[in-house]
Amino acid sequence: MRRRDLLKLGVFSLAHAGTARISLAAQTPSAKLITAKPDYTLRISPVAVELDRSRIISTIGYNGTAPGPILRMREGKPVTVEVINETDSPELVHWHGMLIPPDVDGTEEEGSPTVPPHGRLRFQFTPRPAGTRWYHSHAMAMDDLHKGSFTGQFGFVYVETANEPGSYDQEHFLALRDWEPFFTSTMEDDDDDTHHDRIFEKPPTINTDPNGLEVGSMTYSINDRMLGAGEPIRVRERQRLLLHLLNASAIENRRIALAGHKMHVIALDGNPVPRPQAVDSVFLGAGERADVVIEMTNPGIWILGSTEKMVREAGLGVVVEYAGQHRQPQWVDPQHRSWDYTIFGNPEPATSAPVKSIEMAFEKIPGGSGKFNTWLINGKPYPHEQEFVLERGLRYRLTMHNRTDDAHPMHLHRHLWELREINGKKTSGIIKDTVVVPYYGQAVVEFTADQPGLSLFHCHLQQHMDYGFKALFRYA
Ligand SMILES: [Cu+2]
C-alpha cells in the first residue's frame, strides 16, 4: 500500500467519525485488523460469463458472476462491506443513488480510497434511502475497454423499507447490458427524440470537425444471458410482475418494452413517482432504473427486450412465457415510442422555495479520426477549479444546457434531485439521481445542499466521463 493511501484514510476516519468508517488490511489479510465478519463481501476477480452456449465472455466481476449478487439492505441499518480486489488494477465500488459520505462513496475524485490490487478494504455506511440502487466500478477506463463499467462489475442493491410497494406475485431484477465493446467513429443510439418539436440549445457555432472515436458493442444481454439463452420468465394469467429495470450499459441509453403488455411505472431511479402511469416502453439512460408492474393479461409467449431490432437480435431480451402456451416467442413494436418523464410528476409545479441558480453548458470538441472527443462543462474539461461551490442548507436549481448532438445521462453523486423541467416542460415531485438531458436540449433539476463533502457530477457514459465530462461540487 502506498503511503498516500494511509494518510488519506487517516484523514477521513477523523472527518467522518460516527458516520462512516473504512478499515484496511494489508495485502495479506490480517486477523488483527479484521475483527468481525462483514455483512457483505465483494470479491473482484476475473469471471467467465456464458451469454449463450456458444459465446463466453471473459471479464471482471463480483463474487464469480456478472452481474454481481443482489444485495438486500435495510434502510437505516448500518452495514459493513468488505471489498477484496483480486485483480492487478486499483478498483473502486460506487454505491449509485445512496446518500452516503464521500469516503465510502467509491470515487477517486471525491477522495474515496481505491482498493489496491490484491488488497482489501472494508467500508461501513448506513444505506438510505430505500429503493432500487446499484453498485458498480467507478474506475477510469480511458482507452482500455477492459476497465471500469465496460467490465462485469455491476449489481443491484435493494434497500428495503417498512412500506414495500403494493402486491405482486413475482419480482425480478433485470440489468440491461452490452458486451464486447469496440471503438467506432459512428454511434447509433436509441435516443429519445420525443422532446424535439424544436431545438432548445443550438450551439453558437456547430463544430463540423470529424467526430472522434465512440464505443459500440457486439453483443447484448439481460443480466448474464442473451435473448433465448436463459430460462424464460414463467408466468400465469392474472399474475402481477414487479420488475426492477436497470440500464447497466457503460455507453448507451436504451428503450425496452414487453410485447403485448403495458408497463406500469411506479418508481424512477428507485424513488416512487407522484403519478404512476402505464406506458408502452421505458427509456433508460445509462445508470437509470425504473420499477414497473406488469399485469399478465395477454396469454402467449412474448419477448421483453430492446425496441431496437438489431440490439434485440444481438441478445438484449428475455422470453416471458405463460403457462400452457407453445409457439415461437413474439415481438411486437410498441405503439408509442415516446418517453416523457413529466407524465409521472405532479402537473402543477410546487410552490417554489427560494433557490440559487447554477447554469451549466455542455459542449463537445470532436476528436477527429482515430482520436477521442473531449467534453466540456462551461468551456472546460475536468478538473474545474472552484466553480461549483454549495452553501450547506440552501436549495439549488441546476440548469443543464446540452449543446451537443448526444443525449447525456447526467448523474450527481450523494444527492437526490427533483426534476423540474425538460425542454421547457415543467414538472415537480419526481426524485432522481440521474437524468437524460436531450440532445440540443435542456433539463432543470433542484436539490438541497445537505450532504457535505465533495460530490461528483458526471455523464454516465464511461467514455464521456473519462474524457472531461465531469465536475466536482464542493461545500463552502
Ligand atoms: Cu455523455
Q: Can you offer a commentary on this structure?
A:
The structure is a single chain. Strand 26 and strand 27 form a beta hairpin. This protein has four helices and 31 strands. With 476 residues, the chain is mainly beta. It is globular. The strands form six sheets. The chain has a six-stranded mixed β-sheet with strand order 11-10-13-18-15-16, with no helix packed on it. Strands 22-21-24-29-26-27 form a six-stranded mixed β-sheet, with no helix packed on it. It has three domains: 6-160, Cupredoxins -  blue copper proteins (Immunoglobulin-like); 170-181 and 217-339, Immunoglobulin-like (Sandwich); 356-475, Immunoglobulin-like, CATH 2.60.40.420. It has helices at residues 3-15, 102-105, 309-313, 462-466; strands at 21-25, 40-52, 55-62, 71-74, 79-85, 93-96, 120-125, 131-137, 154-160, 170-184, 214-222, 233-235, 240-247, 254-258, 263-268, 271-279, 282-284, 289-295, 301-306, 317-322, 356-365, 374-377, 389-390, 395-402, 408-412, 417-422, 425-432, 434-437, 442-448, 455-459, 470-475. The relative contact order is 0.14. Residues 406, 408, 459, 461, 464, 469 line the site of copper (II) ion.
